[in-house]
Every structure is written in structure tokens, then in C-alpha cells.
Amino acid sequence: MNQLAIDLGAVLAAAAPLIFATMGALLSERSGVINLSLDGTIMLGAMGGFTVALVTNSVPLGFGGAALIGAAIALILCILSLTLGQSQTAVGFVLALLGIELSSFLGAPVVRVPGPSVPFLPIPLLADLPIVGVVFFRHNLLIYLSFLLVPFIWWMLFHTRMGLTVRALGERPAAAFARGVPVTRMRYLMCILGGALVGIAGAAYSLDLRQGWSYRHTFGMGWIALAIVIFGGWRPWRVAFGCYLFAALEIVALRSQRTMAGVPTQVFQVAPFVLMILVLALVNLVSSPQALRRIASLPPTLRGPVAMLVSRLAVAAPAALGQRFERP
Amino acid sequence: MEIAVTNLTKTFGSLRANDGLSLRFASGKIHGVLGENGAGKSTLMKLVSGFLQPDAGQLAFDGQPVRLRGPGDALQAGVGMVHQDPLDVPGFTALENLLCAAPRRAFPSRAMARTTLTTMAQRLGFTLAPDTPVGAMTVGQRQQLEIVRLLACGARTLILDEPTTGITAAQAHALFDALRQLAADGNTVLFVSHKLDEVAALCDTVSVLRTGQLVGEQLPMPQPQQRLLELMFGERIVQASGQALLLAGVSVSEPQGLPVVQPIQDERSSEASPTRPLVWQLEQVTAREGMVRLRNVDLRIPQGRVIGLAGLDGSGQQILLRLLAGRLHPDSGRILINGVDMTRARTRTYREAGIEYLPADRMRDGIVGALSLTDHFALLQPAGITVDRQVAAQAAREAIAAYEIKATPITPLIALSGGNQQRAMLALVPDACRGLACEQPTRGLDVASAQGIWQRLQARCATGCSVVFASADLDELMAYSDEILVFFAGEMSAPLPRATLTGARLAELIGGVGFERSAS
Amino acid sequence: MQIQDAGGQLTSRATYQLADLADYLARLVLPFLGALVLTTVVLLTVDVAPLDAYRILLFGAFSTPIRFGDMVMLASPLILCAGGLTLTFAAGLYNLGIEGQVVLGAIAAMIPLRLFPDLPPPLLWMLSFAFGAAGGMLWALLAASLRLGAGVNEIFAGLGLNFLASGIALYLILGPWRREGSASSSGTALLPRELWLPTVGSLRLAPLAPIIALVALVVVWWVLSRMRWGLEVRAVGLNGAAADRLGVPAVKRMAQAMAGCGLLAGLAGTLQVLGVFHQLIPNISSGVGLIGLLVVLLVLARPIWVLPVAVVFATFTVGSVQLPLTLGIDSSIAGVLQGALVLAALVSRGLMQRRRRA
């Protein structure tokens, strides 16, 4: 029981960087901009954040630096795609590769150098609660913030006027324009804010979860984060669930390496990726028109629950995602 | 609120959409703005509502000169525009749409927005539920929502662009009542239309535009129809046609003195001769797409006929077109092409049987914009390892001459004007075509281009090809169809011979008045 | 009327071509300038004389015959990948799964080498290339069916399959194909000498590699510009719905373009095994797929440009290998330069389009 609580706590901690990255991507994509540079941004954020924290000996400054790096990459993406009309996919991909190479080049001097990290901060009283305390309240500030970030983004998107505007930008920018919203400027803002969160996700690796910096330190996490946003159907709670699911798989892989010696470790290393593809495929298949038609022909007793399940699973991307808005 | 424009000019490339317009709309009145397609009505309205910026000239609201950087500025100054396709967010509820990017002073809280929505809707006689998603509303309801939103955000001048397209007769009635009430309250209404009867019924004054210029300024209503038609189309054309019946969209004669198209060919419209072989035969076909479902359709279309499909957007005519073209498979029933059962055949088999489909959105799914006419003809060559570019170029040259397409064989089609693209799309239909399913074949075209398209379509009919077309333009339906099928809420009427219909009767049927589904 | 039209069209075409030429030059020069500025800034931050670094990056690959050979052996699989990617790019697909297709090609190429080590080498090489091509194609078709059958975006399907492919490679290296005695994640046992592709003298340059790459590139060029199939693929990439209406089987063409790309990527993987590493290692692709994507973003769907750009990119990478020893900086500056080039090309493309519209 206690071991389970510790594992659950570890899952919550391991998911924190992904939460920051996916919420950043969500913000950007809900406003209609797809930031494919996530892998490079996280990598450069991790390297930059760690270097800044090392030089200034200040963890907060490290996070600040990482956020700036993320914002700067997002700004470049916006200039190239929103202002200069290049494909968001192409620009994002190049920025991803460029970020990775830059992190390797600039980060070479700090490889495996010990540095500062986010201090442990158990919450007084609550941390001593049985089980709950171990799961939720024996972490550091970064992880507590990741708990708060999801409800905050959800509240912002679905319960504020700002959120209405952001969602309108992603669904029908022409409608936002007709209401006097400066479409391109707002998209810049959302993408840059999202980019800053992604940069913070990078620093969350180098200053907390995988302390320090090494060659390709956060390999692949950006692509995972992008896939989780799709898996979560652009809805904050479901995206968060995806992050925790992925982190849980990682922890399971780590644990079973020790306990299940017969199973090759590679199975566990690639399992989350395979699972991600399969889930995406499944979700798309059950919400396809053919599947819907088949559901409609089910006996009435089955039809209701199945249709409900499918509508819960189905994902619809923001209608204007990746499209450029040109004012008339 | 008084709107004044002075010397307003807007050009798109070489086209002068608005050419030095000076005009004043007094407050508290409903002003009609008339003109045929492409006359510059929409451009003028977009300039006044901030969607476009003028190249030259001035705007003044209540005597104050204004510079509008966008629609937000216009709304702040009190001018709001309702577009033909209302600019709302489909995923939002009515209430969310109202709140989205609205000024805080309009709705200090969500609860107050809800109250405003219900009270204003009630006062204007609209039926709007705050929590209905916009995607589930009819065009008429979405229009009503936009009107409420604009008024709540402080609009004192409302611009409506062709508001009666795609709404029911009852909704149009409610809309007109609401507009009269708004004018009586001191608001200004600008009503853009090409339908004379609506303008006559509603407006206090009317202004007429032709090719970007003002040809009739603030004429007090009522005006004789003949005079308005002369203003809209120019005297020559109206005299040549000699029919005041033709309202707009399609005129009867070719401007350059080409032979007058006979819209009705008596010999064809008389009794479909039973000896003619059938192109299409539908037996008890049921199909669905999206939210619309077409049930138990029986239909026989012999060779050489023109069948018009009338109805509001999304009433089922698109489903029928896609069924006929093999792009949608029926859930049940049989489809026979030239007497052969093709119920579940692939689109490719339909094409091989001579069935072609012309979509409404040319650039989206009609033609490949970056490729040339030669490339397109190369794609149509019979299968082989390589393509014969010489042959394709020759075919392109012939098509350019025969269809009067203004392009070279190697011009990318995206660089062509709408009319030329439409003619190119038609030129690409093989001669062997037996059945042509067209969605809005003349949408967005000027009168001459539209007529050119119909000349070609009728020439094809003369060789035995059948044309089934959907159109939102009643005059087009009345002018060219042998028979009309009316769609209402997923139901299809029996084929109605054109001679038995009038425009007014057709409009009623589309709105569901006296509509009867075909017996089956 | 018609003559006038044609004449007007002609003059406008002539001016268009002149503007085109200026554009063309600007497009060639601007990216280099932009990339140079960006890379120089990066070099200055680590306190290195940029000229020294550029000298090595640009000319290092030509300093000795051995290095030149290495450059050719890197350029060859790169040309194969980039050539394949022009097919998918023409079809409007972002085949980010190409890395996995290279890896699967390499794995499949190993199969005949392990099964029939006693066959005469030329026969074995042919078998190996055939297996490699099939392996890459299989992996590409998997991504294609995920995209076309289940609607999973090809970018994510491809990326997931990349991870899966490297997982399989690692599993084979540590498991069934492990070295005699000690299993090591560094790779399988080296192939017997006689199975290595023959090289020129003592260089690592195997002439068969560039020959295969160039032949493949010519085929790709011919297919895209002359064959009906190529025209259809381009139509699908430009506007799938319209191509479908005109009778082009769009889904089939997309899948075939993916398969073609996978085939070439599989050949690249086979070259990596037979000509470069002579064993299966975890990082068998050494990133040629990703660099190939950068190349294609530069050249778009124009295969003729693949050759010079791939050679330049390979030059950077091979030159950069000397940097840690001579200047004490990390070799990843080559990747920075490559990425910066593409980024700058996108900027200049955007600026040109903007100017033309204005």
C-alpha cells in the first residue's frame, strides 16, 4: 500500500514537465497555431534553464531563462508562419531540429556538471496525512504548480471571456475578427505564452526530474507532448489524464525492469509510443462516419451507451488549426 | 444614426469595385441597396462596416468623419453588419456567441447577457434559446442571433447582406417585422438585396449600384419595377428581354448580341417521352450525410433533361447530387445508371459510366489550382505509363477556343477569374458524359459568364446528356429547368414541371408552404 | 482578340521570368547570408574564431581522400532519403517516419546476411538490397495505413514508428543478434570482410553507393516530371479532393508515394549496413532521414536540386567531425548550420511572397 502511494507520487512528479509542455501546446493550438517545435524547445529550455541556474546559482532565474527561450522560439514560429505565411508544420519541424542541435552545441560545456535543483518542499501538516500526504503533498513547488496549472488553463479557456476569444480564434478566426479581435496579434500572444510554458517544461527536466544536463537530455518528450494533446482532444482535463497515463507507463517500465527480468527492456521503452499510436488510431476509428453508421444500427439498448462512449472519446481539432488568417 | 460616404473608392487589382461613391443614408429609415452580382453592393457595405478600408474617400457617421481600422471600430462607432453566412462560432452556444469578445459594458456578467438575449429576442419576435449550440441552429436563427448581438453591443445602424437567402418564409417575415420595429426606434437599416419584391415590401428608399457606380440615389419607394430593372441592368438589356419578371442574377440576353438563349424549349418540356432511355433511376433510396437524411427516394431522369434542385441549403439536395454522382452510397435502395445497377459502385465506375460531378467550390474540390489546363487534360488521358503533353496541350488549346477561356494552355488555373475557372471545369467534362450533377453551377459569376455556362450546358443536353443542378437562385431554376425538385427538411417533392410553377410559388414551396413530399 | 491575348500573355511572361530570375538569385543568396549570420552568432558565444570553424566545415571534407570518401558515403544515403522524400512531399505528406524506415531497411538487410552467409557475395548483396527496400517500404506502408486508414496524422504515426523501429533494433542487438560472448549495446558482430561493399583502395568509399543513389535520383526525377504517376501524385498533393474528382485514386497515390519513399529509405539503410558500418548498430540511420527532411524543405518537390544540397549538407557534417579535436567545440554546429539554412530559406521565401503580393 505504501509502495503504491510512493509510486503514485512518483507518477505525479514525473508528469509535471509534460503538464507544462502540453498546457503550453494546448494554449497555442486552441488559438489556431500548431507549435511543432516542442521537442527542440524543451531541449533548449532544459539546457538554457540549467545553464542560467548554474551561472546565477538561482533556480527561479533558471526557469525564467527557460521561459524566455521558449517564448523566443514561439515568436520565431509566429513571425515565419503568421506574418510570412510559411507552413506551420515546416517551420515547427525546422525549429525542433535547430533547437536540438543548438542545445547540443551550446550545452557541451555543462554536460554532467552538478548544479542547483528545485528544493523539496513538503507541505506542513498535509504531508503527514496517511497515503494522501505521500501522493500529493511531498513534492516541490514546481509540481504543486503543475497541479494548479490544469484547472487554471481549463478555467481560463472555458470560464472567462479571454477563453471565449481564444477558442473563437481557433474555431473561426473570421468571427473573432468581425468582433474586433486583432486575430494575428492575439495568436502571437497565445503562441508565445504557450511557448514560455514549454520552455519551463524543459527546465523542469534539467532542474528537477532529470537533474543536470547531458547530450539530448529530454529526447522525444516534445513529440510525446504533442501526441498527448491530440490524444486529449484539446481538452485540458483529458490532456492532463494523458500526461499522467504516460508517466505511469514510464514508472511501470522502470519498476518492471527490475522485477520482470525475462521481458526485454526495449519493450517497456517503446511501449508508450506504440500505445499512443494505437490509442490515436482507435479514437479515430470509433469516431469515423462508418463507425457512427454502424452504431446507429445497433439495438436501442446498446446504442445509447455506445454513442455516449464514442462521443466522449471522439476528438475534434480546433477547426482553424494550422490555417493562416488573412483579413479581408 | 446618419451614414454619409463621400467619393468612396475601392479597387481590387484592376477591378474598380466602388468608384467614387457619394451617398447619404438618413437615420430612422430602412434603405435598400440594389444591384446585380458584382455591382459593388457588398464592397460598399464592407467599407461602411470596417471590414475593408477604402483606397480613397471619406466616411462620416452622424456628421463626424471616421476612420475604421476594422469591424471592431465600426461596431464601437455603432455600425454592425450581418453577413450572408453569419460570422459566428459553430462550436459555441448562443450565449457564448453573444459574450465572445463583446465589450464589457454590454454585458457586465453572464447572467445579464442571458437576460439581454431573452428579452431582446422576445421584443424582436425571435425564437432563440441561450444554450443551443450555434452549429445546431438554422441560418435564420443565426442571423437573428447576430442582430441581437450587434444591437446589444451598441449598434445603431444595421447592415444586412442578402439576408433572405437560405431562410424560411416565416423567418423572413419575422425579420422584416423586426427591422421595421428597429427603424421605428430610430435605428438605421441598410438592406442589401437583388430581389426587387423584398426591397419594395420593406424599404423607405432605394439606391442602385451598377459596376461600382451609383446609378440611382436615395429614390423614395415605391418605384416602378421597370425603372429599377433599367437602373440595375442598363436600359438596353432590359428592353431586349422585355420581361420585368426577371429580377436579377440571370438575365435573358447575352450583352454582346449573341443569340438569345431559349430558356424553355417547348419540344423538350412537353411530356417526358417514355421512349427516351433513362440516365438515372433511383429506387427507394435512403441515405444520410451529417444531420440530414433523405428517405425512400424514387426518381427517373431520362436523357437530355435539365432538373433543378431547389431548397434551403442543407435540405437534402446536396445529398441527392452526391448520390447521383456516386460520391455517397445509399443506406438502402438501388441506383441504376443507364439501366445498370451501380448501387455500391465506386466513384470511378460512375465516371466510366459517363457521370460527372461539378462541385460548387471550384478551388477546393473542383480543379487543382497550381496546375494548368494542359496538366488537367493530361490527367484525363487514358491510363498509361507516360502522358502525351502534345496531345494534352492541343486539347487545352481547343478547349480555350471553344469555351472562350481567357488563359494560355500553361497558365495555372488559380490565376484565372471565377468565370474562366468555371468554363475550364466544364471544358474538362468529357464529351462522353451522359449525366452531369452540378452544385451551384453559376455561383459567384456575373450575368454574362452565367449565361455562357448555361449555353454550354444546354448544348450538352442537346446531345442527350442530362443535367441535374442545385441552385439557390430561384430565377436560375425557373429559367433553365425542365422540371424542379423541391427539398424541404430532408423531404423531396415530386418532379414539378417548370411550366406549372411561378417564382412566388417556388419560393413558398422552399419555405415549406404547401410542400408535399413525393408519394412513394 | 485572341492574338492580342496571346501577345499580352507573352510580354507578361517575359517580365515574370525576369522577376523570377531575381527571385531565384535572392532565394539562393539570402538563405546563405541568413544562415551565416545565425551560425556566426552561435560560434561567437563559445568564443571560437568563426573563420576557422567555417574553413573546417566547408573544406574539411575535401582535405584528405579519406574524408572525401566519407563525405560521399554520407551523401549517398542522404540523396536516397531526400529523393524519396520529394515523392512524399509532392504528395503533400510530411513523412517524419523516414528515420524508422531507414532503420527497418537496415534490419531487413541484415536478414539474408545472417541467414545465408555462404552465398556468393554479389548475390547476397542483391538479396540484402531487396530485403532492405522491402523493409523500408513495409514501415512506410504501416505509417501510410495509420494515416489513410485510421486518420492518425502521418507526422505522429511516423514519429511513433521511429521510436518503435529503434526499439526493435536495440532489442535485436541485445537479444537474438547479440555478439558472441558479450552482449553489447554498441552493435552486432562485424560482418565478414568479403561481405563489405568493395571500396576504392584503402578508402571507405564504396563506389556502388553513389551509383545507386544517383540512379535512384534520376528515376525519381523521371517519375515525377515525366510519368503519368508523378503528375497524379503532384495533383493529389496540391489538391486531393479535386484530383479525386478528376479520376485520380488519391488515397492509393499517397500510399504509393509513401511506399516509394520507404523503398528508397530502405536502400539507404542497406547502404549503412553494407557500406558504412558493416554491422547493425542502434543509431544505424545516423540521422540521415532527418537531414533528408531538411534537404527537402529546401528543395521542395524538385529532385534535381537534391544532389547539390545533399552534397553540401554531407560536407558540413563530415567537416564538423574534426571540430572537437582541432577547435575544441561540439560537432553539432553542422546541424545548427543546416537548420539555420532551412530556416533562413523559409524566411526569404516568405519575404518574396510578401513582396510579390504587395
TrEMBL record, chain A:
It comes from the Bacteria. CDD domains: TM_PBP1_transp_TpRbsC_like (cd06580). Coiled coil: none annotated. The chain crosses the membrane at residues 6-27, 34-55, 61-84, 91-111, 131-157, 188-207, 213-232, 239-255, 267-286. It is a multi-pass membrane protein. Keywords: Cell membrane, Membrane, Transmembrane, Transmembrane helix. Its main location: membrane. One of its GO terms (cellular component) is plasma membrane. One of its GO terms (molecular function) is transmembrane transporter activity. This is Amino acid ABC transporter permease.
UniProtKB/TrEMBL annotation, chain B:
Keywords: ATP-binding, Nucleotide-binding. This is ABC transporter. It comes from Candidatus Chloroploca asiatica. PANTHER family: CARBOHYDRATE TRANSPORT ATP-BINDING PROTEIN MG119-RELATED (PTHR43790), GUANOSINE IMPORT ATP-BINDING PROTEIN NUPO (PTHR43790:SF4). InterPro entries: AAA+_ATPase, ABC_carbohydrate_import_ATPase, ABC_transporter-like_ATP-bd, P-loop_NTPase. Pfam families: ABC_tran. It comes from the Bacteria. SMART domains: AAA (SM00382). GO terms for molecular function: ATP binding; ATP hydrolysis activity. Residues 3-236, 279-514 form the ABC transporter domain.
